[in-house]
Amino acid sequence: MSGEVILALAYGLVLTTSGLWIWRRVVKDYLHHRDDED
Amino acid sequence: MLLLYLITNFAAAAVNLINPDITPAESTMIWVAMNLLPTVLGAILICGVLAAGLSSASTFLSLVGFSVSHDILGSGSEQGAEGVGNHTERHSHLRAARLAMLMVGLSVIALALLLPRNIYWLTHFAGPLFASSWGVVAFMSIWSGRLTEAGAFWGMAAGFGVNVTMNALSLAGWVQWPVVADPILVGVVSSYLVVRAVSSLGAVSVHEVAYREALHTMSPQERDPAVVQQTLVWPKVMVAMGAVIAVALTLFYARPYQEAVASAEQVVWEAE
C-alpha cells in the first residue's frame, strides 16, 4: 500500500474516530451526567 | 477544521501548478480570487478573508481592552466586573481600555507597514509561542486543583522565555535544535515543571477553589435533551465526512498521483 493511500485512509480515520469520540463525550457529559445518579 | 486544512492545502498545490511565481506567497488566495475564480465567487472569497481578519482583530482588541481594564487596572475579581468600584474609577478604567486598544491598533498598523510581508513565518512563530506560554496554564486552570496564581504567572513566563530564547539561538545560527527538542515542546515542558514547582510552594485560596468549581457546574439549559440532540448532529456529520473524505482522497488524489508518477517514470525509462 502506497504512502498516498495510507495518508488518504488515515485522514478519514482521524475524522471518523474524532467524531465518534466527541459523540460519546457529549452523550456522557450532557445526557448521562454524573449528577443524575446522585 | 480538518476539512478546511484539506481544501487549503490542495488549493495551494493546484494554484502552484498554475502559477508558481505569486509574490508574496501569502497573497495566493487573493490572486486566485482576482484571476482564477468567476467574479462573484472571487468577491465572496475576498469578503470572507476580510471578514475573518476583521473578526480576529475586533476579538483581540476587545481582549486587550478587557485585560487592561479588568486584570491590570482592576482588582481582577468578579466584584470589579460587577461595578462595585466608584463611578470615577470605572470611567478611568474604560478610558484606559480604549487607549490601550487604540495604542495596540496603531502599533499593529505600524508593524504591518514596516515589517517585511511574511505572515506565514510570523504565524509559525507566534502560534507555538502562545501554545508554550499559555497552553499548560489554560488546561490546568480548569482541570487542576493545585494551580496557584504565582504558579500560573511563572509557568507562562517560563514557557514564553524558553521558547523565545531557543528560537533566538536558532535564528542566530548558534544552535540547530533536533526535532524532539522543538522550542514548543521544550517550552511546554518547562512551563509545566515551573507551574508544578511554584504551585507547590503556595496554596490555592478558597475563592480560587470556589471559582474553579463553579466552572464545572453545568447549567440546566445545557442539558436540555433537544439541544443535546442538535449538538450530536455535528459529530455524526464528522463521522460521515471521515468516510467520504477517505474514499474521495483515495479516488481523486492517491490513485491519480500514483498513476501520474508511474507514467512519468515510464517516460524516463523509455528516454534512457
Report the count of strand segments of chain B: 0
Poorly predicted ranges of chain A: none
Radius of gyration of chain A: 16 Å
Approximate shape of chain B? extended
Mean pLDDT figure of chain B: 87
Count of extended strands of chain A: 0
Helix content of chain B: over 70%
Inertia-based shape of chain A: rod-shaped
Averaging pLDDT over every residue of chain A, what do you get?
86
* Number of helical segments with 4 or more residues of chain A: 1
Q: What is the assembly state of the chains in this entry?
A: heterodimer
Give, in order, the helices and strands of chain B.
HHHHHHHHHH
Give the helix/strand class of chain A: mainly alpha
What attributes characterize this protein structure?
heterodimer, A: 38 residues, mainly alpha, 1 helix, 76% helix, rod-shaped, B: 272 residues
How is this structure best described in words?
The complex is a heterodimer of chains A (38) and B (272). Chain A is mostly helical. Chain A is 76% helix and 0% strand. Chain A is built from 1 helix and no strands. Chain A has one helix at residues 3-31. Chain A is rod-shaped. The mean pLDDT of chain A is 86. Chain B is built from 10 helices and no strands. Mean pLDDT of chain B is 87; it is low at 78-82. Among the domains of chain B are: 118-217, no CATH class; 224-272. Chain B is mainly α. The chains are: A mainly alpha (38), B mainly alpha (272).
Briefly summarize what is shown:
By secondary structure, chain A is mostly helical. Helices cover 76% and strands 0% of the residues of chain A.
What's the structural blueprint in terms of helices and strands?
The complex is a heterodimer of chains A (38) and B (272).
Chain A: H1 3-31
Chain B: H1 2-18, H2 28-35, H3 39-72, H4 78-81, H5 87-114, H6 119-143, H7 149-171, H8 183-201, H9 206-215, H10 225-271
Helix pairs in contact in B: 2-3, 3-5, 6-7, 6-8, 7-8
